[in-house]
Amino acid sequence: MRVRMTGLAGVIAIAALLVGAAPASAAPGDASAYGARLNVTLLGNPAVNAEPFAAANANGPTQNTFAGVDLTGILKTGVINASASRDEKSGGVYSRASTADVRVDLLSKVTGKISAELVEAECQATQKGLAGKSKLAGVNLGKLGQVNADPAANTKLDVQLAGVKIAEVIFNEQIKNNDGSLTVNAIHIKLLQGVLGSIGTGDVIISSATCGPAGLPIPMASGAGLWIGLGLLGVAAAPVAFVALRRRASLNVA
């Protein structure tokens, strides 16, 4: 059996195939940032859990500011700014967090006070890929050592007490997450539970930015793009449909 299809029917069939075959629109890429987050338990003291300060997200709020953190014996900061944005046309996302006048007292009994005038983290995702970086200004690490103003990814300094590692400080920490996104923590302090010399457990993160992967640009075969595409297809196919119908009419007359 042969199936005859006029040009108009062909247009409808092609349109149906486009609608059925086109993948669902990919959700645009996401991005987020915050200035500081703490979850630590010091020996002999109750746990300290502080939610992300000045959290921002590409879905809103896209910008946030916090006057400053003041947790005695752990962390003190000045103004925190965070932002996250999405380019709807390209699918690219960007996030940034900056924390001013940072002072970390958490390890002061071992390293002396750690301070910085400014701690920044940035993350960007485009169709070409993901990239992140951290920037430090006016850093004083006490006895811990030195670090560049633009530290290499995952630069780590160990904190030891009586020859036992009790903590580590990671600068420009870059983590590739399972969902394909990238997290950049400008400073991440990890307290390690040890047999000897432990002062507590937990984490302190200062200036964090997460982004990506980039979402796809608005596809042609969805939303307004679908109707525009089908309209152009119909215009192109109209002459074919007219000729096919005219030919059929002529055959019927004969």
TrEMBL record:
The chain crosses the membrane at residues 224-245. Keywords: Membrane, Signal, Transmembrane, Transmembrane helix. Residues 1-26 form the signal peptide. This is LPXTG-motif cell wall anchor domain-containing protein. It comes from Lentzea indica. The lineage of its organism: Bacteria, Bacillati, Actinomycetota, Actinomycetes, Pseudonocardiales.
